[in-house]
Design a protein that fits this description.
Blueprint lengths: L1 H15 L16 E9 L10 E6 L15 E6 L4 E3 L2 E3 L2 E3 L9 E8 L2 E8 L8 E8 L5 E9 L7 E8 L2 E8 L7 E6 L9 E9 L1 H13 L19 E2 L8 E15 L2
Parallel strand pairs: 1-16
Antiparallel strand pairs: 1-2, 2-6, 3-4, 3-7, 5-6, 7-8, 8-15, 9-10, 10-13, 11-12, 11-14, 14-16
């Protein structure tokens, strides 16, 4: 028996002694500009959101940090030709000081390293979140808390929405189409681990157009939506922003203008 034990010990050591660290050499593509541009109009009294644009560069697969872009020239121009500069604030975030107006077309322009990126969009309407329904027997365990934020879709038109459920315990994102729910009550779904009574969840509902819907829907399908829609993706998803100077060097990201409603719920 002792002979067998010694043999097994020597056999195991032979595998350990053969360990070798392998460094993978991956091809690195030229970094692309990543643009997250949101203009939101909140009809609710006392809620204001100024234009915010986040710029960064794509990074190699094994990099832990995303390089921010801090040297771009960013402007938004309305249909009357009024130009609103969007200055850099910090860490790649550019924040404007004007409020988006309804029934107005806006053009985003970003100049970075001699190339011009543009996109044009209009405000897309949304509807208020009316109420939140809570159940306490959801999930695989049957003991998780599940929240549904309900809103009524307007009848007679194609509508698309970007839905967020945000809390300290985790975030949920979804792109919703009214294709099968036109004119009916729809809900956005929120279920994360460890949510418990007393936690506060903020629900945001944004009106988006079909192009933005297709972009966000595809992005979320590729990634793990609770981790955020702009984590590393297995394939390139192109948005609605073009490079006017060099079309082959297209950016990643989106430009959307949304009417938005917010609803805060405390878990019971």
């Amino acid at each position: 028996m002792n002979t067998i034990k010694i043999f097994l010990f020597i056999f195991a050591l032979s595998f350990l002694s053969c360990e070798e660290v392998i460094d993978l050499e991956l091809n690195e593509a030229t970094p692309k500009l990543v643009i997250e541009a949101s203009l939101n109009h909140f009809p609710q009294q006392g809620v204001t959101s100024f234009p915010k644009i986040k710029l960064s560069l794509t990074a190699p697969f094994f990099e832990n940090e995303i390089p921010p872009v801090t040297t771009a020239e960013v402007t938004i121009t309305d249909e009357e030709g009024t130009i609103f500069p969007i200055p850099h604030s910090e860490n790649g975030s550019y924040i404007g000081d004007f409020e988006v107006q309804p029934n107005t077309t806006y053009t985003l322009q970003i100049i970075y390293e001699g190339e011009i990126y543009t996109a044009t969009n209009q405000l897309v309407s949304a509807v208020p979140i009316e109420f939140v329904e809570q159940t306490d027997d959801a999930g695989f365990s049957g003991e998780d808390i599940e929240l549904k934020a309900f809103f009524t879709d307007p009848a007679g038109a194609e509508n698309y929405y970007f839905f967020e459920g945000l809390s300290e315990k985790g975030n949920i994102y979804d792109a919703i189409s009214d294709e099968f729910f036109n004119g009916n009550l729809i809900f956005g779904y929120y279920l994360v681990e460890d949510i418990e009574p007393g936690d506060v969840v903020r629900f945001n509902l944004y009106g988006i157009n079909e192009q933005n819907y297709n972009f966000i829907f595809t992005l979320l399908q590729q990634g793990d939506s609770p981790a955020g829609p702009f984590e590393t993706q297995p394939a390139t998803v192109r948005g609605n922003i073009v490079n006017e100077t060099n079309p082959t060097n297209f950016p990643l990201g989106y430009f959307r203008i949304s009417e938005a409603y917010t609803f805060t719920y405390t878990v019971q």
